[in-house]
Amino acid sequence: MNHRFQTVTALLLAGLWGAMLGYFHLRPGFDPLERMEATLADLRSTIAGVRTPPDIVSIIAIDDRTAAAHGYPLSRATLANLVTSIGTLQPKALALDILLVDPGPEEGDAALAAALKATPSIIAGAATFPQSLQPVTANAEDPLAAVPEAQQLLLPQPRFEDAAALGIVNVATDQSGVPRFIPLFSRAPGRLDAAFPLRTASIALGAEPLIETDDIRLGAHRIPTDTGQRLPLTFYGPAGSIRTFSAADALDGKLPADAVTGKVVVIGATVTGGGDVFPTPFDPILPGVEVMSTAITHLIAGDGMVRDHKVRQADAGIAVILPMLLVALIAWRRSALGFVIIGLTVIVWAMLNLAAFANGYWLSAALPIAAGLPPALIFGAAELWRDRSRARHFADQSARLQRIEAPGLGEWLARDPAFLAEPVRQNASVVFIDLSGFTGLSEAVGPAAVREILSSFFELIDEETRQHGGAITSFMGDGAMMLFGLPAPAADDAARAAACAVRLAERTRLFLAGHPELRRRKIGFKLGAHCGTIVASRLGSGDRQQITATGDTVNVAQRLMEVAASRGAELALSASLLDAAGPDAIPLRTGRLTGPFETKLRGRSGGIAIYTWRGETL
Fold first, then answer.
1. What is the longest distance spanned by two Cα atoms in the chain?
2. 447, 463 in Cβ contact below 8 A?
3. Nearest partner of 529 among 482, 569, 565, 487, judged by Cα
4. What is the DSSP-derived secondary structure letter of residue 603?
5. Which end of the chain is more exposed for a tag (fewer CB within 10 A), N or C?
6. Do 59 and 290 touch, CB atoms closer than 8 A?
7. Could you tell me which residues are beta bridge partners of residue 599?
8. Which of 149, 123, 122 minimizes the C-alpha distance to 29?
9. φ and ψ at 428, to 5 degrees?
């Protein structure tokens, strides 16, 4: 399977993986990555930092001081006094975040109902569901189709519901209990109710909410909503970020007028042990009344998070594009620069995602990570495995090359791939070796035995050639050609060639004597050595090339083997090579050297001065 096909397949699979996650992300009521997204949303909120909320909402807290002075829970009569004292300061709306489900003393209930009626007021109800997750369906023609239906409503006493508007105080939390959304509508059999924050904002703005597919409209205000007509929640900071005053001061007439006049006032409990608290990124115990007040501020100021269907579609698109981009980058370059580009791509995406979040657009962080990370890791691992396989292959090839090339020649070729791309004329020494009488051996011992014999013989030649710094340019049947002078000529090329030839003669003699079948058939050998100008080049095409040498010097060295055989010697070497090898040349110090004498070579018109050599044991 070629690499291009593998890359295209990986790109398609990465895109399909992202598309599948994007599909689930767009489905109402089901997103397997919500837990991860919640954690990343908290991280981005923390990085974005604390914000100053618009001065729209004031909280009147039934706090520990109020409980100490007036008891807890407050009596209906005390609540009536609190509502009346606040109402005299003319708030835009007064929202009572307290469930008035049970009846109280008649006098207190009547006073509270009258106080609520005298001021634009909102009271709280709650919805209960049979399970924590409710199945819903999407319907483009019905914007409320994805709103779950409540099993039961906890409604205030009818006299209070007649005196004030009703709002449902339910909050959608994640698995850790952090409020993430406010469901802006609650459905129950036969009725539809607005959420407590939405009803409060509606009365404060003097506009009834108009329900559309991806948003709610309050007069000129457009509030983008998430699936199921939910309002995403982001918090301004820890408890007290929204201006909070003690109900004790209101009951004592000490509440400043600017805290109420023209503001939305929300009354709720913050007393220790009251139970209505939630963890947030900024505070482990944010009172529920501040959660409601945050949502009211979002609705009126329009500074809430935008996470509507269009944003989710953008998430789905990123989930398809990002993994394909990462796979493409991994396939493109796996160098240090390539990994830097991949890292920069991820950093740029993270910074854009954070910038969007800080500016009110809740793009998913979990979805692109889940879409991009597995394909990138899997494809990167596959590419790493492929690279290692290729490295092993090239290492094997290099090892094979080193078996036929002189030490250093392989490294030279690696450093200079263009080495001998064009023929080069230079001085070198050439040695040939060949077995005599070997041709008919295969008929007697069989091809397997012949292969074993030749392998051992070639191993012997390889060891000596490498030991003397030469290069085997070719194995030819039962012989070989060795070159001394690559990659560059050296002053001792002739001396090393002569030493190698003598050493090969000595080892080959022992090799043949040690093999019974070769000894019985009197297999012999011959060597020829000469030096002079050669033409070194590459032969072949494409990736099937080998280094070779041609020229008269090569031809003479090869013909000298015939001279050695005809004169009963093991080695015939030219006088020019022996002279170049110097007075310490090995043939001068070992064995029996004869010459010089002039001889004619087959295929040459002129003669050449040569020496013959054979070992002492002959």
1. 144
2. no
3. 482
4. T
5. N
6. yes
7. 608
8. 149
9. -160, 165
Classify the C-alpha dihedral 149-155-159-160 as positive or negative: negative
Burial class (CB in 10 A: 0-12, 13-18, 19+), 260: buried
CB 427 within 8 A of CB 485: yes
* SS percent in the chain: helix, strand, coil, step 5: 45, 25, 30
The DSSP bridge partners found for residue 217 are 210, 222
Q: For the chain, how many residues are written? A: 618
pLDDT score for 279: 93
Cβ-in-10-Å burial (0-12, 13-18, 19+) of 124 comes to buried
Which stretches does DSSP call E strand in 512-567? 524-541, 544-550
Q: What is the pTM of this model?
A: 0.65
Tell me the three state secondary structure of residue 73: coil
Helix runs in 88-189, H state only: 106-118, 158-163
Whether 486 and 471 have beta carbons less than 8 Å apart is answered as: yes
Q: How far apart are CA 372 and CA 406, in angstroms?
A: 49
Provide the sign of the torsion angle of the four alpha carbons 401, 406, 407, 409, taken in this order. Answer: negative
Mean pLDDT by 10 residues, the chain (618 residues): 78 92 80 84 92 95 94 94 95 95 93 95 89 55 70 91 94 88 88 93 93 85 87 93 95 92 95 87 93 95 90 93 88 72 88 92 92 88 76 56 50 66 88 83 71 86 91 82 88 95 94 84 91 84 68 92 92 95 92 91 84 82
Handedness of CA 27, 33, 34, 38 (dihedral sign): negative
